[in-house]
Amino acid sequence: xxxxxxxxxxxxxxxxxxxxxxxxxxxxxxxxxxxxxxxxxxxxxxxxxxxxxxxxxxxxxxxxxxxxxxxxxxxxxxxxxxxxxxxxxxxxxxxxxxxxxxxxxxxxxxxxxxxxxxxxxxxxxxxxxxxxxxxxxxxxxxxxxxxxxxxxxxxxxxxxxxxxxxxxxxxxxxxxxxxxxxxxxxxxxxxxxxxxxxxxxxxxxxxxxxxxxxxxxxxxxxxxxxxxxxxxxxxxxxxxxxxxxxxxxxxxxxxxxxxxxxxxxxxxxxxxxxxxxxxxxxxxxxxxxxxxxxxxxxxxxxxxxxxxxxxxxxxxxxxxxxxxxxxxxxxxxxxxxxxxxxxxxxxxxxxxxxxxxxxxxxxxxxxxxx
Length: 370
Hints:
The chain is α+β, with helices and mostly antiparallel strands. It contains 13 helices and 9 strands.
């Protein structure tokens, strides 16, 4: 028990100590009255116990001998349902600690890159709880830089990714929303996103005419890659709030035979399963990859942008690794707020494990750059 207590104190120190954790829990309404659960540190242990125990009943049975707070499963449910905002703040503190601890490799050249993606978590049952994980990932340091967990109603958006000034957001076509990209551009950030003719409205910067598939194919011709100056406009505007078109670069790449076939299969599945009739433009561009960016052409060639976009698979691999190592593929929670707590508690486990492993590496190899 003494060794276990020492281990927990080490985890507390990652968050500034027990008093800091307690203040955080009270600030975010997770610990309004200290009854059986006396402080924030104890509540955090209960949340982590639930994340690794996979059921309220087994966690409640463990709560007494494990944390000193003997709770029934109903009481535990009430505590954990209110802990979401507290745990979200714990995640942010661990991310900040990780960003301060793990340095950018000396051989990394260029601005910070943020790979952005999301992942869905579904509770048990046909109508189970659903939550969306939003995240951004730094490929240079191999760490997450931003994490958010929201209801499924909040769609994928770069606004959840914490893209700082000067950083480059890299994401797929689900994030290609002009009003968000305009905000990033105005804030001094950059983007490299997969684009689609149907996912965003692209126009000719001179005539203002909507860009079509034939113009794209004409630019590509028989080449492997090409570029077209375009402008982005919002598909919908509120009242008279229309904004001027935003200039951008459209990078056009010839897709591999494998990628082309995969896209054709996706179109056919959408037609068969969802009864969606593909428009001619979608069929025309099945063998083309389009990337929209505001990076300057002087320093960012077509080849460099294409290589940057290929890094995006790393965040998908990071998601798969966490879900596999921490057994997050089958969430047990049917309640939406409990599911959010379960996701955040598992992420805390993953971040703590990463920080402790990095601490051990530094102790073993003090001169190593990590």
